[in-house]
Amino acid sequence: MPPHSSSTPDLPTLLHTLQHALQTNPSSAQRELSTAKIALLHSNALIPSAQTATSTLQTARSILETGALISIHLKDPSAFVRYWSQLQPFYDYSAPDYSPSPDRSKITGLYLLLLLSQGDYAAFHTVLEGLVAAEGEGGSGTGSGNASIVENDPYIRYPVELERSLMEGSYDQVWKDTMGEGVPGDEFALFSQDFLHTIRRGIGSCAQSSYPSLPISSAKNLFFLDSEGAVVDFARENGWSVEDGRIYFPKVDELGAAAVAGGEEGVVGEIGGDVGAQKETIQNMVGYARELEMIV
């Protein structure tokens, strides 16, 4: 173990400083986060072990959790993923007097939300299944007990319900959930823009595989954009043509050729290959957009 430096603050002091920065000015915590990594190394607390005091391990875990939350505020998903990976041994560790983390479900819910915003549904379900399995091992083993973390924990339930709405094509419900009072915390709200991008991408996939074109006026509300100019920018980003107040999508055969050339499944595969279901979804969304137009 590296020799301890007298100039390195102790772990409780670092934790207090980081928690204060999280509440007041997360961008000011960069130096303290770097110092914390050195202090964890000096304290033999980067990875939990029986040779390290339980109180030290719990403080180290809290430092890593605070770092994860700060990275969300700094909009640094790569740093958040690194903290998530570092925290897993602490979450799996078991020892006398080593109490479970009260923030584990919050950190896990944020990680699920990050995976969802990135469209990584396989990893999303892997993490979720691990949670249910872990609860089954530690609980009564009954079916209702296994499901309780998904049904009763607001931090876990939130991304699970969003994923369900996304899979159903209920993009308007996702939009309402990410903007409403059901968001379980400030860090979750910071994902709103990422989710809106996911929603727009999904709606665009439905639209371009179901219709040759859409009016810009309808597309503004359909894609949850603030202006028709933003619609035009969004259309051009996706390679769609804009002419005479309408968005024109590539033909289906052109989409297929582009998917083959890019070695991808294509936009239809992103939300399922049932074109009929996609058309029904987009019809519902167009109707919703028209209702919004009447309100606005």
Strand and helix layout:
Blueprint: H1 11-24, H2 30-42, H3 54-73, H4 77-92, H5 104-117, H6 121-138, H7 143-152, H8 154-168, H9 171-179, H10 186-189, H11 192-210, E1 213-215, H12 216-222, H13 228-237, E2 241-243, E3 246-248, H14 252-262, H15 267-270, H16 275-295
Antiparallel strand pairs: 1-3, 2-3
Helix pairs in contact: 1-2, 1-3, 3-4, 4-5, 5-6, 5-8, 6-7, 7-8, 8-9, 9-11, 11-16, 12-13, 12-16
Provide a descriptive summary of the structure in words.
It is a single chain. It is elongated, with a radius of gyration of 23 Å. A hairpin with a 2-residue loop joins strand 2 (about 240-245) and strand 3. Helices cover about 70% and strands about 5% of the residues. It has three domains: about 10-100, Serine Threonine Protein Phosphatase 5, Tetratricopeptide repeat (Alpha Horseshoe); about 100-130 and about 150-210, Serine Threonine Protein Phosphatase 5, Tetratricopeptide repeat; about 210-260, no CATH class. The chain has a three-stranded antiparallel sheet with strand order 1-3-2. By secondary structure, it is mostly helical.
Domain unit count: 3
Class from helix and strand fractions: mainly alpha
Q: What is the number of E strands?
A: 3
Biggest sheet: strand arrangement: 1-3-2
The portion of residues forming beta strands comes to: under 5%
**The biggest beta sheet, please?**
3 strands, antiparallel
CATH domain topology of the largest domain: Serine Threonine Protein Phosphatase 5, Tetratricopeptide repeat
Helix content: 55-70%
Order of helices and strands: HHHHHHHHHHHEHHEEHHH
Give the name of the CATH architecture of the largest domain: Alpha Horseshoe
Radius of gyration: 23 Å
Per DSSP, the total helix count is 16
Distance between the termini: 64 Å
**Overall pLDDT, averaged?**
80
Choose one word for the global shape: elongated
Low-confidence regions: 1-5, 140-146, 255-275, 289-296
CATH class of the largest domain: Mainly Alpha
